[in-house]
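Provenance and format

Records in this collection were gathered into a single text stream. Each protein contributes a sequence line and a token line. The two records reproduced below are adjacent in the stream.
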Amino acid sequence: MPALGLLLPLSACADDPPDLVRKTIGAAGGLVSSHDEVLTLVFQPGAFTGDQEIVIFPSDAPPAIFGPAYRVKPDIELMVDVEVSYRRVLPANTGGVAVSAIHLNDYIDDRGYWASLPRLALDEPSATVLGHDAQLSLYYGLIDNGSTELALDTRPTAVTGECGNADRVPGEVCYDGHHYPTGGGALDVGLGDFDGDGQLDVATINTDGTHSIRLGDGRGGFGLAVREASGLGATSLGVTDLDRDGADDLVIARTQGPPRLLRSTHDGHVTTLAIAEADPHQLSTAVGAADPPEGSDVSLTLAEAARRAELRRSWTGRLTEQSTSDLVIADHARGGVHMLLAGAQPHQLERILFVQTGAGAVDVVAADITGDARLELLVANAGADEIVVVEQTGQHWGVRARVPVSGSPSGLDVGDLDADGVADIVVSTVDGGLTVLVSSS
């Protein structure tokens, strides 16, 4: 859709438009609907720190879409996502229907287009579509793209083979990509069970000094974000059960000072945890730096690179059944990963490899994403907007595939989000927020 050159009244006018609804929402939350009850905003507790006046009225200023559009004031970030429901007669094919928004920054940048919000639910009997937004947007409406699938916030990406095959064979993996806003850019991401229900949830640390937690539904989707302040200067995120209460907690590394420990309250919220209360082994696992073996030339080379801040995050584990403990480190400057492969004996370094993956490698994890019972490496390349799949063929490790992820990836994690036995991927992006790649094979 072409950019729009519109001058929008961003402040209150002396003469309110007709059909305007004005309501004050406090820290306890509440809801406000348009005069015709087509648009309803449901604010969760904690979305505001105090009383906030919300204004809704119909508007024909934005581009025409399926159904009326509504102007909402003020245009502000929220500490907890707002539920946005839109109720009206729906098209016969509801697969392409989604609540949509136009954000303030898009108008500032002269990009006045509608963007679909992540769809939480569709209730056809009541003709209601439910989405969620990390901020209050300028406009809300309903998009119908006429497709048979909800493709507005979904991007199928084939790692290999053809997407959509009913019978998955080892080596063939297909992903459906879903984007979730974080209110600002995301610096790192981690998967864990934050409410103790046995299903994976997702957490991010964000560029605006907050962290976000979304509880998983066990089917590859996530609910509303609980976003709370955690302070500026965050660099990376660790997830582990610090107090061994059955729910994972957050460990946030910072540019200065000790890491911040946040204990889960089993509902998506966290509270501060003193270091003395944390299990020492769990804490060291979450924040421990990866150190190369001593007494080798490579240890000196990597140590010098680390001092120049060229090395980013790392992964430690067993890449093969024959090894004891391997170490893989992302090298941002060289654009690849250092692989320190162990032998069968403890503390034995068998091979040292460097695999070129592309511009700006910032994070690396290992998982079996192809169902062949072997681990692949997944590398986040910030400079190339992609996740790179590295696999072993014989004694050789090399790039197998590249999965595009826009927004400058900053971190990634893996886990089975939908219990289909195939690893799924979550990616934090500096310019976009959170991208979830769910295996659809």
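Adjacent record:
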Amino acid sequence: MSKPKTLVIIQTVSKIGRAISNVIVAFSLIMIAICLALIIYVKNSNSDFQKIYEYIQLFRVYQNYSVYGLYYFLTSTIIFFSWLGFLSGLSSHYFRKQLETGHPFTTKLSKELMTLGILQIVVPFIGAGCDYAVKLLFEAVSHECYFIDMKILFNISLGVFYILTSFICKYGTELLFRENNPIAVNN
């Protein structure tokens, strides 16, 4: 018996979601490693600070800050890619389980998707709080004012989407249970 067309589409989207999540995890780890390497490099050789800072300004517009500005930028980037990689890893885990199950209509998967949605909303705020604390620390040390970039809007939208989808999956689970257990539904 062949799978229903909609289930094939769901499985295809899950495969794509898992692949994208894995790429984001790998990219996040690479970015964290690059930032840590730059922090260590700048810490050990102040002579190339200006050259590194000019390269970074190609990607992000800042005023001319001291070495603390560079440290703040790199630390903020590490915080961002840490929570992005963490959430992408959880998403990849969900997609893997869903692909192994063959469909998203299980109580466990719908609860996991709900949890993932909540984390997609909460974790970026925790990351933004950490980023703000680091910003205050570097401002106190350097007596400069740094721009803080809140990179959380997309994750809030994704979190809401996951939560809504978890309700649909939970409903599908309930329908499957009723179909497979008509006696339990009537009692």
